[in-house]
Write a structure and sequence with these properties.
Layout lengths: L2 H9 L4 E6 L3 E6 L2 E6 L5 E4 L2 H9 L4 E2 L8 E4 L7 H16 L4 H7 L2
Antiparallel strand pairs: 1-2, 2-3, 3-4, 4-6, 5-6
Helix pairs in contact: 1-3
Length: 112
């Protein structure tokens, strides 16, 4: 997947926004909460389910995301080497997991 493809997929999710922070990282949020990060050099980090975290880390496909691993975030070092449909699915899951933690009022405001 390309960097542009990642951004397009992330921003296609309902209520998703992007900010640039932390030295140039593109941070994708829903309701003000982060669900994915695209860093410099093609690395990405995103929230995954508990099961996906275990599988992705144990198989070596991903590594625990720095500073966010305790919250079940994984990091991929090379976005270009990832399958487009898998990344789109992971983004949708990350978005859903984070959106589920928003208040009922926030979800209604975002149309979720």
């Amino acid at each position: 997947m390309t960097s542009d493809g990642f951004e397009t997929a992330a921003l296609a999710l309902r209520g998703a926004t992007k900010v640039v922070q932390w030295g140039g990282a593109r941070v994708y949020k829903v309701g003000g909460r982060i669900f994915a990060i695209a860093g410099l050099g093609g690395a990405i980090s995103l929230k995954v389910t508990d099961l996906a975290y275990e599988v992705l880390v144990e198989t070596g496909q991903a590594r625990p995301a720095p500073y966010l691993a305790r919250a079940k975030w994984v990091a991929f070092d090379d976005l270009e080497g990832l399958d487009d449909s898998e990344v789109v699915g992971w983004l949708a899951t990350a978005h859903a997991l984070v959106a589920a933690k928003l208040t009922r009022a926030q979800r209604a405001e975002l149309g979720l």
